[in-house]
Amino acid sequence: MASVETFFIQPFKTHRKRLIPGQRVLAKTKHHALRDGERLGRTAEGLAVIHVTADDETGEVSALEVLARHGEIPEAFEEEIRAL
Question: Taking 90 as the threshold, does the pLDDT of residue 67 lie above it?
Answer without folding.
Answer: yes
